[in-house]
Amino acid sequence: KNEVEQSPQNLTAQEGEFITINCSYSVGISALHWLQQHPGGGIVSLFMLSSGKKKHGRLIATINIQEKHSSLHITASHPRDSAVYICAVKETSGSRLTFGEGTQLTVNP
Amino acid sequence: ETGVTQTPRHLVMGMTNKKSLKCEQHLGHNAMYWYKQSAKKPLELMFVYNFKEQTENNSVPSRFSPECPNSSHLFLHLHTLQPEDSALYLCASSQAQFSSYNSPLHFGNGTRLTVT
């Protein structure tokens, strides 16, 4: 069992829909990252957070440290949002990032 | 443009070949990383260099040999690979390793490696 679990694994939505991707982890962390990977392979860092909520454009990331859970929300989804979204955590006791398996999002026009 | 450039984008090599992957960053970062991404698996850390010194080797087989001549360049030398080494190899950089996981990683677009 991976220390970082994402759900769902695959998500298909219609353009305009509100999307939520979840990330649960089982260890104490100092930071959580949300990353976006497009079909070409490149990865872009979307958010890094250790508490509360962050917003950038149509993207919102929240984290609940007590519940060991984070969500990534996309409002007014668009086909260009289609990508793999990856959650990664930095454990307080370690020096590495632990990655989830990713959520494949497809937004249809 | 991510600031981290990887070449080549695609590579097909036989098991007896020797090839090298190259990564270059112009972000002024001091830590550089190699990650492996296999199908349906999470990213796996391979190597970390901090200020040109290797600080982590995640039990990577010796057929993968990293080289970091300076803080801006990172290489991964490949020889006698196996078909199961076929994967996407991603380079990343950050300000410095020990603060890196509390600051963003910047990834390249990766090299898609196929070993035949």
Walk me through what this model shows:
The complex is a heterodimer of chains A (109) and B (116). Chain A has 109 residues and is mainly beta. Chain A is built from no helices and eleven strands. In chain A, strands 2, 4, 5, 9, 10 and 11 form a six-stranded mixed beta sheet that branches. Chain B is mainly β. Chain B is built from one helix and eleven strands. Chain B has one helix at 97-100, and strands at 4-7, 10-13, 18-25, 31-37, 44-50, 53-57, 64-70, 73-79, 87-94, 106-107, 111-115. In chain B, the strands form two sheets. In chain B, strands 2, 4, 5, 6, 9, 10 and 11 form a seven-stranded mixed beta sheet that branches. In chain B, strand 4 (31-37) and strand 5 form a beta hairpin. The radius of gyration of chain B is 13 Å and the shape is globular. Classes of the chains: A mainly beta (109), B mainly beta (116). Chains A and B meet through strand 4, strand 5, strand 9 and strand 10 of A and strand 9 and strand 10 of B.
